[in-house]
Amino acid sequence: MATKPKSVVASFALGVSALKCIGPDRTDLRAEAALSLLRAAQPPVPLEISTLASEVAATWGSGPLGVELIEAARLLRLGEIVARYNVRNFHVMDPAHANRLVEFILTQVDTDGANANASASGRSALDDALQVCNAYSHLDASAACSTYLTNAISLGVMRPW
User: Fold this and answer.
1) DSSP string computed for 1-14
2) What's the pTM value of the predicted model, to 2 decimals?
3) How far apart are alpha carbons 111 and 116 in whole angstroms?
4) C-alpha dihedral sign at 134, 140, 141, 144
5) Cα–Cα distance measured from residue 44 to residue 81, given in angstroms and rounded to the nearest whole number
6) On the CB side of 25, how many CA atoms lie within 13 Å of its CA?
7) In whole angstroms, what is the distance from residue 8 CA to residue 125 CA?
8) Sign of the torsion angle spanned by Cα atoms 93, 99, 101, 102
9) Is the sign of the CA dihedral 77, 78, 83, 89 positive or negative?
């Protein structure tokens, strides 16, 4: 996976630092700044933005921009997963695309240990599939786990006994 130029990473780090400088009494301004940063980020996402996306729901989830912040963080996480698996033409609003994305990710079970993308991110195909399932209400995490185990056993990665 390509890396961001240092200037882009530095710009996001500066943006997150500036966000932290906004006073705690200005939650509306902080939420707007966080939303702008999340919307501007593209995979691969700098660590500062990933951390910000993780903190968004707990910090500003109940405010006036809460729904938009949570949605921006969700879309950013999905974008990272889509980029990690080099998926093209993924439409986030299409439930059928989400189904196919989970199915595709779960076929990557045999490469979890050897996949440079999975190793670099510290995530497995199961982690990514569950993240996608959590992002869409029509996807079943239990079914994804079952499919993962079935694929792992059939490929000899795991033994059923």
Assistant:
1) -----HHHHHHHHH
2) 0.73
3) 9
4) negative
5) 10
6) 0
7) 28
8) positive
9) negative
Segment (H or E) for 141: helix 141-154
Q: Which two tokens stand for residue 120?
A: 């670099």
Burial of 20 (0-12, 13-18, 19+ CB in 10 A): exposed
Is the Cα torsion angle 11, 121, 140, 105 positive or negative in sign? positive
pLDDT classification of 112: cutoffs 50, 70, 90: low
Q: Which residue has the tokens 């779960």?
A: 106
CA distances 144 to 125, 129, 151, Å, are 10, 7, 10
As a whole number of angstroms, the distance between CA 67 and CA 61 comes to 7
Positive/negative CA dihedral, 38, 7, 119, 104 = positive
Q: How many CB atoms lie within 10 A of CB 77?
A: 20
Over residues 51-93, the pLDDT tens digits come to 888 887 677 777 788 888 888 888 888 999 999 999 988 988 8
Q: Which long-range contacts (CB under 8 A, 24 or more apart) does 90-98 make?
A: 95/136, 95/138, 98/132, 98/135, 98/136, 98/138, 98/139
